[in-house]
Amino acid sequence: MASTSHPTPADAPDRAALERALRDAVAKAGSDAAAQRVAVVAILRDLLTEGREAARAELERERDGLRCATRLSDLMDLVVRLLHGVAVGMSGGGAQPLASERLAVVAVGGYGRGTLAPGSDVDLLFLLPWKATPWTEGVVETILYALWDLKLKVGHSTRTVDECIREARADMTIRTALLEARLLLGDAQLFSELQDRYDREVVQGSAAQFVAEKLAERERRVNRAGSSRYLVEPNVKDGKGGLRDLNTLFWIAKYVYRVRDTADLVQAGLFDREERELFRRCEEFLWRVRCEMHFVTGRAEERLTFDLQRQIAERIGYAGHGGLSSIERFMKRYFLVAKDVGDLTAIVCAALEARHAKPRPMLDRLVGRLRRKGKSIADTADFVIENERLTVARSDVFARDPVNLLRLFRYADRLNRAIHPDATRLVTRSLKLVDSRLRNDREANRIFLELLTSRNAPETVLRRMNESGLLGRFVPEFGRVVAMMQFNMYHHYTVDEHLLRSIGVLAELEAGRLKDELPVAHEILPSVRNRLVLAVALFIHDIAKGRPEDHSTAGARIARRLCPRLGLSEPETDTIAWLVEHHLLMSTVAQSRDLSDPKTIETFSAVVQSLERLKMLLVLTVCDIKAVGPGVWNGWKGQLLRTLYWETEIVLAGGHSSIDRAQRVKRSQEELRRALPAWSDAEIDAYVARHYPAYWLKVDLPRRVKHANFLFGAEREMRSLATEVATDRFRGVTELTVTAPDHPRLLAIITGACAAAGANIVDAQIFTTTDGMALDTIFIRRAFDQDEDELRRGARVAQHIERALKGEIRIAEAVAARSTERAGNLKAFQLAPDVLLDNALSSRHTVIEVSGLDRPGLLYELTTALGKLNLNIASAHIATFGEKAVDVFYVTDLTGSKVTHASRQATIRRQLLEVLHGREGHAPAHPPRPARAASR
Predict the structure, then answer these.
(1) Where are the stretches annotated Uridylyltransferase (predicted)?
(2) How far apart are CA 586 and CA 744, in angstroms?
(3) CA 466, CA 345: separation in Å to the nearest integer?
């Protein structure tokens, strides 16, 4: 605890003039206390407004976030002191308070540190010698009421010294707040008594407890905010690597080492001067970002959301360069700062762990520990185990043999030991040893590949290498993507973190922990002939992100250059380059193509060419998607990938394509006949005749059985309009099956009803029967974990569809009225819309791929537009990648033919682009022409 003051800015308000103005205002208001307070608050409101504007201008001019925070704290000090003077005058008319009316006004918590963001809480302690008197109550109330009238968020307490000590012993939050206590005004002797007793009765003998509590509290906090420091929408205050982590480090240092200022951290032996300067730079940058966020939003916004990233990057002065946008460059700096905060945390934890006596200066402490004898390791004299952690035996281990930089991490992996932070620091300080000679060293590259393919914890060890800086230096191409974020809603992590997580998914898959979630990948992985090729491809599949050219193509070039250096053969290099170049192919085909169309499988098979490549591509794809972020992988994507895998395997093995289409239709019909033994031959024959051949080729047997029973039940009950709901927990979707008389507006109405009900469509199977009935299955993303809840929700959506088809709901108005949080987030993104028409992807249909910025009701607007264009939709495939929607429609014209005329294609493209641009607004409630067709 200390009383701290800051240099007075040249444009600081004149306190004496303000005091005179306040006295005059109070006098003019007469004896009416309410009128006096109104007058005082008006003056102070102007003071705060002008002071904040001055701080904002200085921040823009000087770009010093810490200076801004201290200036705002000084401004609040002035307000509190002025209010105290007014309160004393109003309560006592200038008379001296009695001995029993001693009062100290103390800033605590963040305010006690002498730093405030524009939206920060103002935490005050009103310190008394014993219980409150009417005089002290009056002064405190006057101050607080005025602060509340100023719309400030005030945290306050009124306690005696005894109460402070008692509460601090019992409550860690109060103990921490008092650790930062700073006298603003009042009785200095009373504050000094609190300081002395706090040190003597609270701190003494409790350092270990405080440290344990603070580190545990930090763990809980970062888990709430998101356990990775590489989340693309980080919490600047409470997230991992944020300001609260720096606060925690300083709290620990103050409590254990009794330092008063960050400058004392060097003398205490916690940091060297370079690390102290790093602490200061991190603190300044994070405060600058936080203050800018509060100024821009006008509130205490701590999450650096996508819409804020653009504004803050611009205000701080970042510009696009080298393939990275201004936002991506700004966020890369942010994540590098967060990593530095993590390094500082590790340094402090190591010092606390080793502290047995008075700390020595940093260099002595470090060298002394490196020379201390630890537990030896069987086959090396260079590394030892100390305090259950792996560390170096001597300080020259890396200088003597730079390959030891990699060996350190190999032993950590083999022995399943954490690396001592001091050893990690020595790695960071030895990075200059990583030169072309080490990068081309055969032993070093062999060790690296061993780490990459480890069956222990490769993700953890590689992350430690990355945090030390070694990974980016040893593989410079990887170094380019360290801390690089992608400005989109799809990717949750920075590029380097995503790549490391993908290696972790592969290790989990190999360990059998994902066999239920990824059954096919789990089954085929042991049969992959070259596991090393797969691991390297995963490690570098996104390594070319942030370049002006396509990252898949550029990544393949990097693979051809990097893999020989790592010691891989020419055939291995070729396979890795192919996997990197095509690492998005399987996901794209599975999610946006008609997998029942033979042309889709034929085209995909022609690219893949071999079963071995197909296996590796499937495993790479699932690892890639699962590593994108929480909730991105789901059972529906898994089902699509499995279908594509099995269909392609048959073709590559020389099967499927040789079976005649008519034979496959007949076989499908016979399967249904055997699956419905209770049906008579006449009933089966009549039902079979209701479906066109495409139905029998596209729908799997379980769903064919469900459809038969569903249509039979609707016919028996004489319902021309019927719906059915079923959940699929494994695939993470809910199926809505709809039958109704076919008509031009049907699909648009169904998609609009789903949008209005808040249901997210992921796919659709569309059929028309020979007797003019529609049979559509709409797959919506699951919203609830429990089947009972999801079935109720599905029934509500189905009811919405039925009401819409009966004309009881005006769809366009319902879609327009539907507001979601997602729509607000999307405003931060700028995405060029695109419409592609392709007649080579299908034998019978024109494939229209529409991509652009997602928004509520987009699918409804697109299907409506296709209806107005007189196009029949045979199937629709809906995919969303964060803010980007990619919707694919297989269509024909009204004659059942492909759209081949150039002018017709241009019209389609133009009108769909108008929808994507939002120029049409919401489509009319009754679109005029067909939006579907019989699947013949």
Answers:
(1) 1-376
(2) 33
(3) 16
